[in-house]
């Protein structure tokens, strides 16, 4: 997040949390969005600088993740907002079992 001014706020998303992806995402936690899942705590970063940095953030996250929109519950503000999150791509999701 270097080079960006912004604020961090505790929030929640509905997703399945994996302690590690597979392939290039191995060793790094990840989520798969699922509106029926239990809430997962996250930190919501808000910054007017983000549009200028999406390219380098996408590159940093790499091919194991994709940037997708998500509904984020912000309890302190008592609201839900749309934000972006890096979700595991299907090939990086661990097999069930």
UniProtKB/TrEMBL annotation:
- Domain of life, per lineage: Bacteria
Question: Could you tell me which InterPro entries the record lists for this protein?
Answer: AIG2-like_dom, GGCT-like_sf
- The Gamma-glutamylcyclotransferase AIG2-like domain, residue ranges: 15-88
Protein name (database record): Gamma-glutamylcyclotransferase
Q: Which organism is it from?
A: Micrococcus lylae
- Lineage of source species: Bacteria, Bacillati, Actinomycetota, Actinomycetes, Micrococcales
């Amino acid at each position: 997040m270097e080079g960006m001014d912004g604020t961090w706020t505790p929030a929640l998303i509905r997703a399945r949390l994996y302690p590690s992806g597979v392939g290039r995402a191995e060793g790094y936690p990840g989520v798969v969005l699922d509106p029926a899942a239990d809430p997962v705590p996250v930190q919501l970063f808000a910054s007017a600088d983000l549009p200028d940095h999406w390219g380098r953030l996408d590159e940093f996250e790499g091919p194991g993740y994709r940037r997708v929109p998500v509904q984020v519950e912000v309890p302190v503000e008592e609201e839900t907002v749309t934000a972006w999150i890096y979700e595991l791509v299907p090939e990086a999701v661990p097999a069930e079992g």
